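Retry 2 of 3 after timeout on previous attempt. Resubmitting structure tokens to design endpoint.
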């Protein structure tokens, strides 16, 4: 386990996005507040008191979904909960990423720790134990409709806590859950009334993926400003349009931040100064993909801010059905519906695709001799013999086309389930899955723009770039990028650039020159 991240405490207060990322991505340890354990015990007593009640209570003495009218005798209620988990662990397809599974387990534990679900204390402790042992249940790609919670993904996690199904241990080895729990000294849980529902009735998979995407996009949008600035510089564009007084005429906060970043990255650029005099530069305006960068990147930032607001509300929620209220009632509700999360997952995919599309357009300008202001066609060493970055732009275009397709919202779809009891669903899990692919796609598109712009900047020698863009070029060179030259195997260079962005090294290099970007 990674000890470099502080322990995350789960309890009466909400988690933060940083907490989710620390546990999901960096293996921070998890602890449950003593006050939360006391509230868990209190609400469990309320559920226990209803077990013999002659009045039916959903999920305690009844079946589930369309079978809610079926009364379950006392002696069959343990089997009822066990059967629920086994039958709902019906996912299919490739394994979901480890960090996603850890995020959804943490978020389910967070709801359990509110005391609003009525689970046993031992059940909540088991979730913390699995997370701390690095045991990751195998969750499959397909199975959640994003309503009644992320049922199948959460059921696979609950199944592992029962000592059934498959998991991967801390080293990544696939093994039966019973063996992994035994090796870690974790006792499998035994479910009682209502617990099966409590373990699967949440939007945790959607929310976990939203938290991870928000974290990634916070940095990626800064990187997008950096690569855009590199393109403006390498294409002999102007930074005058990024002036604060011009941006203030349209006072969107994200636009102002993006423009400020672009100005900071381009500051003190000899390349820019080489054509600042109107007498030597007759172009009045740059193309939209250069001039309108703050408007597009800013709109994406403002969308991200809205997503962060929704995530904050959701992180403060206790999602279960039925729920144990603070005053002791057990009430049915619809809080498990994933619509609020699904909408922002879909919403983010739209500006993300557009940011990538604008990046690809800037790259294409570098390769067109008619538009690149004196650079060789395709930035090739010997055009005709060499193809330069011709096919690197094809790769960008293929990704952007994919991003446009997956920007089509999933949340407008609904397929009724459970014999029409669950007749409107959110498809939020599907929105989350496509957003993850979109984040990866944007990172790759920006990597190609960064490489292309670096090549264009290098071809402007002996003119020097700005300190910030020069830091990116230097980082690329120190990572093995040889700069302009004859045709060579480009795929490794692209993957290396993707890694430099993903690990934060590009942003770190720039901010050493500019200070923190907005």
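Retry 2 succeeded. Sequence:
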């Amino acid at each position: 386990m990674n000890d470099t991240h502080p322990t995350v405490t789960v309890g009466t207060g909400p988690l933060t996005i940083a907490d989710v990322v620390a546990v999901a991505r960096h293996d921070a340890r998890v602890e449950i507040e003593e006050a939360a354990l006391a509230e868990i015990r209190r609400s469990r007593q309320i559920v226990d008191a209803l077990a013999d009640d002659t009045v039916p209570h959903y999920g305690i003495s009844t079946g589930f979904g369309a079978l809610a009218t079926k009364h379950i005798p006392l002696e069959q209620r343990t089997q009822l909960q066990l059967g629920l988990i086994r039958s709902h662990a019906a996912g299919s397809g490739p394994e979901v990423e480890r960090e996603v599974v850890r995020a959804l387990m943490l978020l389910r534990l967070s709801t359990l720790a509110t005391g609003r679900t009525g689970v046993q204390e031992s059940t909540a402790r088991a979730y913390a134990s699995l997370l701390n042992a690095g045991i990751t249940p195998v969750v499959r790609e397909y199975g959640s409709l994003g309503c009644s919670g992320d049922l199948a993904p959460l059921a696979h996690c609950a199944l592992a806590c029962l000592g059934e199904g498959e998991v991967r241990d801390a080293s990544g080895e696939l093994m039966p859950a019973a063996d992994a729990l035994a090796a870690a000294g974790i006792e499998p849980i035994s479910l009682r009334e209502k617990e099966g529902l409590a373990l699967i009735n949440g939007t945790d998979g959607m929310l976990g993926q939203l938290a991870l995407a928000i974290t990634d996009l916070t940095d990626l949008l800064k990187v997008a400003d950096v690569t855009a600035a590199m393109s403006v510089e390498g294409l002999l564009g102007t930074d005058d349009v990024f002036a604060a007084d011009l941006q203030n005429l349209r006072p969107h906060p994200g636009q102002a931040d993006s423009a400020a970043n672009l100005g900071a990255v381009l500051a003190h650029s000899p390349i820019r100064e080489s054509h600042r005099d109107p007498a030597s530069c007759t172009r009045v305006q740059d193309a939209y993909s250069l001039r309108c960068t703050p408007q597009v990147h800013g709109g994406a930032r403002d969308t991200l801010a809205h997503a962060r607001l929704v995530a904050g509300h959701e992180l403060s929620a206790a999602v279960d059905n039925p729920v144990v209220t603070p005053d002791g009632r057990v009430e049915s509700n619809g809080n498990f519906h994933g619509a609020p999360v699904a909408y922002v997952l879909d919403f983010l995919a739209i500006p993300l695709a557009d940011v990538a599309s604008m990046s690809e357009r800037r790259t294409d300008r570098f390769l067109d001799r008619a538009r690149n202001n004196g650079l060789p066609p395709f930035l090739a060493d010997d055009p005709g013999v060499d193809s330069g970055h011709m096919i690197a732009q094809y790769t960008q275009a293929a990704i952007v086309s994919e991003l446009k397709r997956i920007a089509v919202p999933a949340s407008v779809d609904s397929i009724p389930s459970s014999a029409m009891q669950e007749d409107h669903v959110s498809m939020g899990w599907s929105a989350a899955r496509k957003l993850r692919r979109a984040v990866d796609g944007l990172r790759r598109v920006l990597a190609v723009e960064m490489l292309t712009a670096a090549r264009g900047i290098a071809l402007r020698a002996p003119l020097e770039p700005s300190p910030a863009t020069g830091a990116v070029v230097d980082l690329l060179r120190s990572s093995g990028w040889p700069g302009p030259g004859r045709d060579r195997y480009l795929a490794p260079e692209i993957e290396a650039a993707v890694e430099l962005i993903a690990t934060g090294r590009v942003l770190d290099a720039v901010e050493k020159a500019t200070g923190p970007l907005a």
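Attempt log closed. Residues 158 and 199 are 6 Å apart (CA to CA).
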